[in-house]
């Protein structure tokens, strides 16, 4: 069965479908674009009217309204496309070349389109006043004079759309974090319910009630044990791991590992010397000082001789050596046992006393 549309299918076996990750919305609403364009048109019309009065070249107020509102409304018509491009081809690390490959042609296209649109408005005004107006000549002139301003307007729209997208992404992340926090609280409550099994709790209370009529001290002990259990459960609620001290209900002596310390320098240096001896006499590497060995281990390869000698040296300071048992190392089989049952390498014959389990 599919999870609800606001959930994401659980594929990790937790038993719960996770909240679906919110996706940021692209684009802007038309009414917001029109409201902003109208506000900017009113502002630029007011400033243009004040400017024409200051320079002594008054312009009909209606013409100013048409020109300034047309300026912003033409950009408003193109704004959704610019926002869509900027949010799908973001100018950011990792996608900079791809974004520039899209935005460089786009800024030229939209800038020239805006210039052409504005010159069309100028042509319409001239035609209404029965004046001639060479549209293409004025488009070329405006492209040279105002292309930089048009590009700045385009990049301003790109920057605003990036800010809008990042804002929506931050809201989506905040929503996701709140959903995860809610799931965490729900999981903690579920864990508490599982730890405080109602069936177990009711059975224990029923047993206490029965004991109250037969053995009051026993009922009191069971009640105290139940309270201790509930207290431990609540103290460790939400913890994935519990210390061994808490589990056993006993304090640690904190003496584990002291055998490797240097509280007793004589024992410490004895162990270090035994470790050096075990490494020097590993796998029959040296036989000159075998007489100093307290234990010599003999066996075939890969049977654990080396780790055993190192363990004896590290833990107990025993000078242990090990010697390989190979057919080539055997001497005359009559040296140790005339009947030929078992024999040792000649290098070990004089150290039989250090070989556990071997007798002459």
Principal-axes geometry comes out as: elongated
- Report the average pLDDT across residues: 79
Largest sheet: 2 strands, antiparallel
Rg: 45 Å
What is the distance, rounded to the nearest whole angstrom, between the alpha carbons of the first and last residues?
Answer: 78 Å
Helix coverage percent: 55-70%
Helix count, DSSP H or I runs of 4 or more residues: 9
Spans of at least 5 consecutive residues whose pLDDT stays below 50 are 9-18, 334-341
> Which class do the helix and strand fractions yield?
mainly alpha
DSSP strand count:
4
Strand percentage: under 5%
Strand order of the largest sheet: 1-2
H/E element order: EEHHHHHHHHEHE
Description:
The chain contains nine helices and four strands. The chain has helices at 30-54, 61-88, 96-128, 135-195, 198-212, 216-235, 244-248, 265-280, 305-316, and strands spanning 7-8, 18-19, 295-299, 320-324. The longest helix has 61 residues, at 135-195. The two termini are 78 Å apart.
């Amino acid at each position: 069965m599919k999870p609800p549309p606001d959930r994401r299918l659980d594929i990790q076996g937790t038993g719960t479908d996770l909240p679906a990750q919110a996706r940021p919305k692209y684009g802007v609403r038309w009414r917001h674009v029109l409201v902003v364009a109208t506000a900017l048109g009113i502002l630029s019309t007011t400033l243009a009217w004040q400017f024409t009065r200051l320079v002594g070249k008054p312009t009909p107020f209606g013409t100013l309204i048409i020109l300034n509102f047309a300026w912003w409304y033409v950009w408003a018509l193109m704004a959704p496309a610019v926002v869509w491009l900027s949010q799908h081809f973001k100018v950011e690390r990792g996608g900079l070349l791809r974004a520039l490959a899209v935005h460089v042609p786009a800024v030229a296209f939209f800038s020239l389109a805006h210039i052409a649109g504005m010159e069309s408005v100028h042509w319409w005004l001239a035609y209404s006043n029965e004046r001639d107006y060479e549209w293409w000549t004025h488009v070329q002139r405006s492209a040279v004079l105002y292309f930089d301003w048009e590009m700045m307007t385009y990049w301003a729209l790109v920057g605003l759309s990036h800010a809008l997208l990042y804002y929506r992404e931050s809201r989506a992340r905040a929503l996701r974090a709140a959903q995860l926090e809610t799931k965490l609280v729900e999981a903690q409550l579920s864990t508490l319910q599982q730890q405080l099994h109602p069936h177990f709790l009711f059975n224990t209370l029923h047993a206490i009630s029965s004991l109250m009529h037969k053995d009051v001290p026993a009922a009191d002990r069971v009640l105290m044990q139940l309270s201790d259990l509930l207290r431990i459960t609540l103290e460790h609620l939400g913890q994935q791991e519990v210390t061994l001290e808490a589990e056993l209900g006993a304090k640690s002596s904190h003496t584990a590992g002291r055998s490797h310390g240097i509280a007793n320098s004589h024992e410490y240096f004895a162990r270090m010397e035994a470790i050096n001896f075990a490494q020097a006499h590993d796998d029959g590497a040296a036989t000159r000082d075998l007489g100093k060995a307290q234990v010599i281990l003999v066996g075939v390869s890969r049977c654990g001789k080396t780790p055993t000698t190192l363990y004896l040296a590290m833990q107990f300071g025993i000078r242990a050596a090990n010697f390989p048992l190979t057919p080539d190392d055997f001497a005359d089989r009559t040296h140790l046992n005339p009947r030929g049952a078992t024999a040792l390498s000649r290098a070990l014959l004089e150290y039989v006393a250090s070989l556990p389990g071997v007798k002459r």
